Hints:
Elements: E1 2-5, H1 30-33, H2 39-53, E2 59-62, H3 69-77, E3 81-86, H4 89-101, E4 107-110, E5 122-127, H5 138-149, E6 152-163, H6 168-175, E7 179-182, E8 185-194, E9 199-209, E10 216-227, H7 231-240, E11 243-250, E12 263-270
Parallel strand pairs: 1-4, 2-3, 2-5, 3-4, 5-6
Antiparallel strand pairs: 6-12, 7-8, 8-9, 9-10, 11-12
Helix pairs in contact: 2-3
Amino acid sequence: MKDQKRDKADQCDHGDRNLSTIYKKLAPVYDHIMKDVDYEDWTDYIDAVIRYHHPYGDRMLELACGTGTMALAMEQRDDYDITATDASAEMIRVASEKGRRRKSGITWIVQDMCRLDIGSRFDIIFMVFDSLNYLHRVDEVLALFDSVASHLDDDGIFVFDFTTPNFSPKIAPLLDGEQGNLRNYRYRRNSRYIKEKGIHVNHFFVEKRDPKTGLTIDRFEEVHEQRVWTFQEIKSMVIRSKLRMLAAYEDFDFSEATDNSDRITMVLRHG
């Protein structure tokens, strides 16, 4: 297992949003928040998409890897040589520790997905769990596509997903008011979809408690805002990029995506 960090002063411009601070406070409880996500099935699906479109690829890069759960699961699927990145140093720290305990060979790097500087090219680049929705502007998404293109082999593929305006009105009420406890932490989530802005907001409130007394010793909040993109908007940006679309699938199967899909998984290759 290797752990690398790079200077982030040259990152893509995200305006007044700093992607490196997203999940900074949530990193210790992130896996608990995501406990109901079936990562095994999701990994099987992404692995199947990869093997269908690039059956012989083995050099793999994950963007926005979070605490590394899917990268570690992917390592168990095939003989992949995996590098995993995230803008949050705290999330990479958790991922690296998980990898160390599992004697993983994954290389962990703190890096902005919109301006990669890894010094290698990959057969496969993937990014899941609507990480693209954290990019709010067209120029950010185009910067991501350019960054990916510069790190893909000529026949390499980029697999990513995003959620659409059909999904947020359904999921926001289900997530709103969610709470949980994990060791010395307690958290609560408020979730709402602002339709007129096309923004899905998740507001997390976290308390850290003294392990001996159970009393609260720290409180903090994180507000996550995701831009909800339409299928047509993403397709139009792909056309403007150095990549071309091979496929777009609906949810977690191989059905063709439509404008009415909730979650879309796209596969791109050099144009």
